């Protein structure tokens, strides 16, 4: 935990994007009712793309940008990479360990433990991308990212799923699911497959690499307006390429397909470019405060939401949990079930905003 005097030296657009992404993550993770949600506030069951599907890859993109901005300076400050490696590894282990802690809530049943999840993937992507940034240039990173995406596409679409004798991309019957069934320890999220499994982690690293490239662009010696234009243009090209690739290798978050990486990284780049232009170039800062506040303690806010959820979802009050009480009150007042569920999710985000605001006001920034 660090006390800081301000964020004037930081890229406000990146902090804002990080904060609103975490707020969106909390909103979609904690609806008022799992059985009543607008379709776009749920993950796609398989192929396709919803608002919810965009959140995790945008955050991994932000991780990559943050690495480029932070470690470009740290690389100059440290004569040896050894100390940086130690800090990178230690931070990755901490994030992964917190993910394991959240997976054990509320029963701490080690026999039913899942070894994958959102924080686990963030930890792995951070570890790999930070080491890559210290040892490769932008061209090498782009080539490596392209090779991973192409290699993953070829593996998933040309290698028959063992036991089926043919290439399959169906839930639980594809190569990635087979690898997880053979080698992934512990519980899998969907019984016989996991959306954050072993093979799909490789293309998720490319989501982070795309952020590294965007970060290098922001560090480049070009005028600010051009940086914004390049981010949005590159994002548009990436999203378009992903769309057309998706015609033969569908956009699919569960498999984290190569087309999914290009579409979502493109969206993230366009979004960052637009925010960079408005906030950091034009100095238009209206309505960015919630994003800055959540962004200052992003992972801490995510963890706190999981802990607070125990109070709202696990413990009954008068025979009902708090989320059920609030949703039933809203539906009783005439709101539709889906809308009531969304209103509760927004309310839960606001509840989590309170401690985030108090930390920000006291200039306390919790760094995992």
Describe the structure.
The chain is an all-alpha fold. The chain has one domain. Helix content is 67%, strand content 2%. The protein is built from 13 helices and 4 strands. The protein has helices spanning 12-29, 51-77, 81-104, 118-135, 138-158, 175-183, 198-219, 224-245, 258-281, 289-296, 298-313, 322-332, 337-361, and strands spanning 2-3, 316-317, 320-321, 364-365. The strands form 2 sheets. The chain has a two-stranded antiparallel sheet with strand order 1-4. Strand 2 (316-317) and strand 3 form a beta hairpin. Helix 1 (12-29) runs antiparallel to helix 2 (51-77), helix 5 runs antiparallel to helix 7 (198-219) and helix 11 crosses helix 13. The longest helix is centred in the N-terminal third of the chain and has 27 residues, at 51-77. It is globular. It starts with a strand and ends with a strand. Mean pLDDT is 92; it is low at 1-9.
Order of helices and strands: EHHHHHHHHHHHEEHHE
What is the 3D form? globular
Secondary-structure-derived class: mainly alpha
What does the radius of gyration come to? 21 Å
| Poorly predicted ranges | 1-9
Count the DSSP helices. 13
Mean of residue pLDDT? 92
Strand content: under 5%
Estimated helix fraction: 55-70%
Domain tally = 1
Number of strands: 4
Question: End-to-end span in angstroms?
Answer: 8 Å
Numbering strands along the chain, what is their spatial order in the largest sheet?
1-4
Largest sheet: 2 strands, antiparallel
